[in-house]
Every structure is written in structure tokens, then in C-alpha cells.
Amino acid sequence: MKKNDIFELEITDMGTDGEGIGHYDGMTFFVKDALIGDVITARATKLKKNYGYARVEEIKTPSTFRVEPQCELHKRCGGCQIQALSYEKQLEFKNNKVRNNLMRIGGFSEAKLDSKMQPPVGADNPYRYRNKAQFPVGYDRDGNIVTGFYASRSHNIIPVEDCRLGVPQNKEILDIIKEWMNECGITPYDENTHKGLVRHVLIRYGFTSKQIMVCLVINADELEPEHRAEDTLCERLSKIDGMTSISYNINKENTNVILGKKTVCIWGRPYIEDTIHLLSYPDFTPQGTGITYQISPQSFYQVNPKQTEKLYSTALAFAGLTGNENVWDLYCGIGTISLFLSQKAKQVYGVEIVPQAIEDAKNNAKLNGITNAQFFVGKAEEVLPQFYENAKKKENITDDTASTGHTDMLRPDVIVVDPPRKGCDEKCLDTMLAMSPERIVYVSCDSATLARDLKILCEEKYELMKWQAFDQFSHTTHVETVVLLSQQKPDDTIEIDLDLDELDATSAELKATY
Ligand code: SAH
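^ thats the input. predicted complex w/ S-adenosyl-L-homocysteine below
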């Protein structure tokens, strides 16, 4: 086999990035845009010892799982990877991805995983689900200003006028921004030269509030005041129905991180609001109407609000609250999960690294009249250990007795974690183990790091009770998972409610008999 050789390949599996996998001539081939069940004519593009990469030359027999994608740019744009795969098969693929990671990295047995699995939760509509988009701004080959998404594994912008995963308003907003840039002579940012002004456009839409936020990420301390450029932009954008917040964010760093630390509101409010209403828990919120959140540009907020209701309902069910529990919500963002937890807990503590998000979380508690949720800004792996050490000192507790029988947040009943893709820091996991809550609910957006962390927790003292995959990101290979862990019960202890009086009576009876 040589580079550029052409051969027939049957795609028999799919890799974690959605690529098709087939075997030929003793080698494994990875093929972008080929689907499980396809028979293709492949061209070898890169060869290693036992494996290689190939390109689809022709689809000879299409897979029965192939469907017509809604977006004509789906192969070029890096946003979607599996739009041509039927939705049912997408769900199966995602569930298998989590299962494989839990098996390979987590070390759980197949039998255990299958007995603890809850069926994967799919979306009612896998299109137009995203409430947030971040569009890079640049030039095309002819020097026109374009907005869109990066091509996969590159920073070439594919001009996407109307992404089918986002809301239709995105296009109108981007058109106004491009027109404004052209008229005012405002330049897009160039990554190579580090020159130019506008880097990204962040747009958020509140699905329940219908409020819109636009935030321009710029490579300067302010917009050009001499052109009164701000006024022109705000005047045009504010005509769009629902426009609530226009701001710019300063990012002068030479980095891939999209947002800088400082945001300046130039029109309307510095945030939008949105409400999450858990259909399966209508009584979980003060008036049964959900919890309303204020969301700043820098704060994290789940991108698929419909699926989020299902995800949070499950996280709450797994937490098993009755009203008396002390609960930590680590990586809490704007307090989304914390404020639901607080409805059925005694006390909730939230921890989050982004100061703006903690500001939002505190305001959100007030906004919803919630008084039993407290928030701390900082890294979970620093705040939790510090709290633990201080609380132990205060209560004069030694390591030996720390995990037995004292109250409040030092020995919480439940810890919920919802970390970013890199998962939990080991120091955070160690402190969780020391705090020894009865249950841990792990919400994860990366099943590989989830599996790594569960291995640590389950080797020590926890047992996997339930896991469930959620499709928060249809047409991409990403998958969200919620896991319930409970403290292991030693095999030889059987839990029985002992009635001591009856026991005494029985032993008296026994004594009398002998
Ligand atoms: N539970 C929230 C947010 C989850 S996203 C929700 O459902 O909306 C993960 C969050 O973790 C983000 O808000 C991110 O800013 C935060 N984060 C990232 N690293 C962190 C760390 N080391 N310690 C605490 N929070 C962190």
C-alpha cells in the first residue's frame, strides 16, 4: 500500500471523532465523512505501520444510516461532524462512546455498566437548539469580511450564513455587523499579524425570555470613538426584536481563548435573562414556574436549553434530596444547578472560578428569593480543600474522625460536580473522598475524563449506581453524561432495621429456652 492508492473499503465502525473506520490489507483506516455501513472507494492519504488515513473518493453503497443533512457546508465546517448520520444512530454512537470510555479508562466491567445504564436521552428537535454561538471574523480570499466557523482542525473561516444549529436571528445580527465594519472601515483581527480589531462575535438568545445579547470581542481597549462607531452599531442592532444587551469584550492576548477578562456594556443591560423550568419537577421551584437566571457574556450557560431541562431533572433525581441535606455544587457557573438543588436541600454551597459568573449566581439567588445557597469564587481544587482544612481546625477534628459523624458542609450529604472537559483536579477528588458524602452526582461533558475520575472515586469508596447519556449537542460527537455514585457498602454487612426491644425480647426468650 502506498499513499494515493485507491481501494474499496467497508466502514464497519466509527471513531470517537465521528470518523469512519474500516480494515483493508491488515491495516485499519480512518476516513472522515464516511459512515458506519458505507462501502466506499477510498484514497490513502497517510500511512503508518498498522494504520492509515483515507479520503472518500466515491460512496459505492451508502449506509442505511445515511440521511440528508440540512446544512450544505456540514463536511467543510468544523462545527458538525455527524450530520449525515441518522439521529437514532447518533444517539447510539454517543451512548457507546461513554460506555467504551467507562470500560477502557474507568475499568468498569461490561456487566456492571449495562446493569447501571439508563437509556440515552435524545432531543425532540436536533436542529436550531443552540442558544449561543461564537463566530470568528476574518477576510475571505477576495478580501471580503466574513463571519462563520472554523474548518475542522484549522483556523480557516468557513463563511456560514445561517447555521442550522443556531437561531435564525444570528444571520441578521452578523449581516448588520459586517455592514457596519465595511462602512466604518473597521478591520477583522488577523491571527498571524496580531493586527485588526474584531475577533469574534458572541451571540446569546434566551429561549424563554426571547432576549438577545451581542458581544464583540475586540483586540483593543475600546471601539474607535472618533467614528462614533459604537452609536451606529447600537442603533442598528437595537432595532432587532428582543435586543437586550450589547457589549464589547477586550482580548488583546495572542491566544486561542475567545473571551478576555473585561467586558464593557455599550447599550442596554450587561446581561440577559432566561428561565429554566424542569417539566418533571414542576414543584421544585418557588411558584412552579422555573428559576430565572441572569447571564453575563463571560458566564457559562448550557447551550441547549431544551435538553438542559432533562439533564438537570436527572441530576436532581440522582441527588435524592429530601430537604435536610447539605450539598456542594462544584463548578457551579451562574448557580444553575445550585438553585434547583436549594429548593430541596437545607444548604447549598456553590464554587466557580469565573468571578462574573459568581456575581450572576448571587444575583440569581436574590432574583428568585433563595436564601439557602451561598457562592464562593475560586478553583474547586483550592476552595474545597481550604474550606475542609479550616472547618476541621475550627471543629478541632483530626483526619481520623473527620469522616465520621459531624455536621454541616464539612461532611455534606451530596456533592455535585460539573467540571469543564478536563475533568476534576486530583486535589478536588481527594478532598471529596475525605469529606465522604453519601452520594456524588457527576455531570460531565467529556466521558474520557469522567471515566478517569470515576476510577479514582470508585477505587476508594464509591460505587457506580447509575449512568445516563444526554444529547446536548446534536450532529456533533460531543456527549453529556450524568452519573450517580453512592458510598460502597461492605459486602458482608446487611442493612437491617433492628428493633432493639424485639431483639431483647428474643434473647430473653432464647435464654429461657436454654
Ligand atoms: N454547573 C454549571 C456550569 C458547568 S460548566 C451549569 O450547568 O451551568 C463548568 C464550569 O466550571 C464553568 O462555569 C467554568 O467557568 C467552571 N470552572 C472551570 N474550571 C474550574 C475550576 N478549576 N474550579 C471551579 N470552576 C471551574
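Residues 391 and 401 are 13 Å apart (CA to CA).
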